[in-house]
Amino acid sequence: MNAKATASSGETSRVQAPRPIALVTGASAGIGREFAMFLAENGHDLVLVARREDRLVELKKTVGERFGARAMVIAEDLSHAAAPRRIADTVRASGLEIDVLVNNAGYAVKGNFLEADWATHADFIAVMTTSWIHLTHLFVPAMVRRGHGRVLNVSSLASLAPEPAGSLYAPAKCMMTSASRALRLDLLGTGVHVTALCPGFTYTEFHDVLGVREEMKKLPKYMWQEARPVVEAGWRGVERNDPVVVPGAFNKFAAFWCRVLPYALTSRMIPKAVSERATSAPLSTSKKVDPSR
Ligand SMILES: NC(=O)c1ccc[n+]([C@@H]2O[C@H](COP(=O)([O-])OP(=O)(O)OC[C@H]3O[C@@H](n4cnc5c(N)ncnc54)[C@H](OP(=O)(O)O)[C@@H]3O)[C@@H](O)[C@H]2O)c1
Q1: 169 flagged as catalytic
Q2: 239 CA distance to ligand 1 centroid (A)?
Q3: In this structure, are residues 167 and 111 in contact, taking their beta carbons and an 8 Å threshold?
Q4: How many Å apart are CA 234 and CA 197, to the nearest integer?
Q5: What is the pTM of this model?
Q6: 121-140: pLDDT as tens digits
């Protein structure tokens, strides 16, 4: 896809600049799908990664028809330790060079920490921490050699706010935001930009997958954003090499107060709906937890 294409018009022919290539994880739905559409519309070819291959194939067709973008589909489960290496090998074997890496794939585990078995937590930690760091480690060196690249990590407002009880989601996103800041500093002056995008509540399949859609409907509309403005804010931020982007007025407001007010205060301001509805009730003492799980 990076090879130069020749376009003929009458007797003259001209060489078109190659389209930059963006690799988007979690492109089969939500924010990742929107990133793929946005980047294709803005002149990129794509490498689309997620587990649901049928959705990626449909997206490949859509971006081809609408924007003339070419796309490669890689169906991978990012909880598998070997997935990032397989993705990089597939990309390299096709002679492609990645200009934009959007580490977006993610989800949350419902319930109290002790209610989920270890395999569930291990998969979660792999997807939400190891996989994107490994992908970054695999693709950024070539960006540095070429003197240009963009890494956009889709983190969360949860990484900037006091964490609600119940899961490893906010801690994992804290790591993503913090590691993005650190990597950005490492790469200053190389031409490679790194930004953590920290959306708040966004209309995607995230809360359906988590199984809390009905509860989430009770949150006021001003707390929600569509995926498109989230994506646009993220792209503007990584072009400027902003360390962190918080999209949307409500989210900016929340992030500001979380930064300036003491933790003891902000931890009480987290809406009950977020900390209780998105998780289950605190583990009751009568509940038996099997430590071997
Ligand atoms: N929606 C929100 O309110 C919100 C707020 C803040 C941050 N975020 C973050 O935004 C990112 C995108 O989420 P979303 O809201 O767009 O949710 P979504 O609509 O559920 O999309 C999640 C994407 O991640 C992919 N994914 C999940 N597990 C995967 C795995 N094991 N291997 C490969 N791909 C996997 C899914 O693809 P497959 O199922 O096909 O694999 C899907 O494409 C996540 O990192 C999320 O934490 C979301």
Answers
A1: yes
A2: 23
A3: yes
A4: 6
A5: 0.90
A6: 999 999 999 999 999 999 99
Q: Show the tokens assigned to 282.
A: 């605190």
Assess contact for 129 and 78: CB atoms under 8 A: no
Atom 42 of ligand 1, nearest CA residue = 26
Cβ–ligand 1 distance for 51 under 6 Å, the answer: yes
* Domain positions in the chain: 17-277
Closest by CA position to 224, among listed 240, 235, 211, 213: 213
- Residues 7-13 have a mean pLDDT of 35
Range in 58-72, 121-135, 207-221 with the lowest mean pLDDT: 207-221
Q: For residue 51, give the ligand 1 atom closest to its CA.
A: 41
By CB atoms closer than 10 A (0-12, 13-18, 19+), residue 247 is: buried
The CATH label, of 3.40.50.300, 2.60.40.3250, 3.40.50.720, 3.30.420.40, for the domain at 17-277 is 3.40.50.720
Residue 30 half-sphere exposure, CB side, CA atoms within 13 Å?
20
The answer to whether residue 148 scores a pLDDT higher than 50 is: yes
CA of residue 204 to ligand 1 center, whole Å: 8
